[in-house]
Amino acid sequence: MVLSLSSHNVIQYLYKAGLCSSEEGANTDSELPRTSQKNFNLLVTLPGNNKILVKQERFIDNDGEPQEFFNEWLFHQLLQQFPVLGNISVIASLVVHFDEEKSILVRHYLKEYFELASFYQKNAYFPKAIASAIGISLGALHRATFNRREYRDFMATAPQGQFRYQFYNPAQGIGSIGPEIFGNVPTDALKFYVLYQCYESLEAAIAELAYEWNPCCLTHNDLRLENILVHSRWERLDNCLVKLIDWEACSWGDPAFDLGTLVASYLTIWLENLVVDSTIELEESLLLAAIPLEHLQHSILALILGYLDTFPRILEHCCEFVQRVIQFAGLVLIHRIQEKINFEKSFDNSGILMLDFAKVLLTRPQESVLTVFGISELEIVKFFTNSAQLSHPKRENNLLRIYYEKTRLRGC
Ligand SMILES: Nc1ncnc2c1ncn2[C@@H]1O[C@H](COP(=O)(O)OP(=O)(O)O)[C@@H](O)[C@H]1O
Ligand SMILES: [Mg+2]
């Protein structure tokens, strides 16, 4: 039977794995408050006061194979093999041990850093310098790996005994639903699926995003604010302000998805603080938020400007990059709603508003650029492109309309 880690056996495990010189003097702090649904996390203080984070994957797929930790381990090996990447401090690997059989991953714990999500939540303060540092860091990662075949091939490695036929395309809508939905989600939440299925333009926009998905660099794929750490003395530092952690979902992917995930994370702060009432229109609710969009806008703008300043070449590669970022942000919002339904079993009027807003981002990205960043797409890209590139070729609708049978909920 596979060992199930707990605060009682973790020190013994670390000792046997050679990560702890003696069982004396080491102690388990506590399970981390933010332990996710999929992993079990333990914080351990070693003799000498160094801290490590010990993680065990809770859900293992049907074949009993560890899945996500393998990606972080692969990423760690990539950085070791190619020091040019390993030297980018913001992504520097913290992994010290991987046990494939037991699905355990151990990382150095950075005591002097704090989680960005908690910082924003506690202070409701969104300094431009932090967002800009994130944009610059992400731009550096994408730029350094852009179109580099050797990194791509490395990331195509699959766990032993498995095959990786292609990289995961995250531009996917809500999958087909079956009768089991009635047992799995609360009745209120069925409305989400009903509404989602009513919007054909939404499905078409997602299908187009999937069609144009262009994997060309190493992507993190899970840039929620919980996976970004900020140095406690960030105000006095010029660099090393931030660290990107939790590389379990990383792969070869489309850079617009990473940036879109970040934009969605900022928008969520706003959208989760709306005043929602059946008598209030969407526009009015959006204006009445406890944390208004304007408070976040300068950070969202600093994020993309920092990114494009570091990696302007992406605009040559994809002239509609900014719009695609917005569309991915919409898609991520939809998936966040679904996550909330699955894990918290809740969906209310604020979820409906979030879905409506996500739909606007996906189906009207050009107008939405102005809403989200506070300035137009042209104003954003003009600093980084020459005038010839500024005139977009008109977007062609290169998708044939394909109708496919899908279970629809009554009401649509
Ligand atoms: N190396 C680290 N240094 C400091 N804090 C960390 C580190 N790794 C994780 N954390 C903290 O622990 C939380 C959970 O870790 P994470 O690897 O993201 O787990 P999960 O897979 O459960 O999301 C993070 O959101 C962060 O607050
Ligand atoms: Mg995480």
Give the % helix.
40-55%
Give the beta-strand count.
10
Structural class per helix/strand content? alpha+beta
Hetero groups? adenosine-5'-diphosphate, magnesium ion
Q: Total number of helical segments?
A: 18
Domains (count): 2
What would you report as the Rg, rounded to the nearest angstrom?
Answer: 22 Å
Describe the protein's architecture and organization.
With 412 residues, the chain is α+β, with helices and mostly antiparallel strands. It has two domains: 10-108, Phosphorylase Kinase, domain 1, CATH 3.30.200; 113-390, Aminoglycoside 3'-phosphotransferase, Chain: A, domain 2 (Alpha-Beta Complex). Helix content is 46%, strand content 11%. The protein has helices at 10-16, 68-81, 83-86, 116-123, 128-145, 149-155, 181-184, 187-198, 200-211, 255-271, 282-287, 293-310, 314-317, 321-344, 349-363, 365-373, 377-381, 387-390; strands at residues 27-31, 39-45, 51-57, 95-99, 104-108, 113-115, 217-219, 228-231, 242-244, 251-253. It is globular, with a radius of gyration of 22 Å. Magnesium ion binds at residues 226-227, 246.
Describe, in short, the structure shown:
This protein has 412 residues and is an alpha+beta fold.
Main attributes?
binds magnesium ion; 10 strands; alpha+beta; 3-stranded antiparallel β-sheet; Aminoglycoside 3'-phosphotransferase, Chain: A, domain 2; 5-stranded antiparallel β-sheet; 412 residues; single chain; disordered C terminus; binds adenosine-5'-diphosphate; Phosphorylase Kinase, domain 1; globular
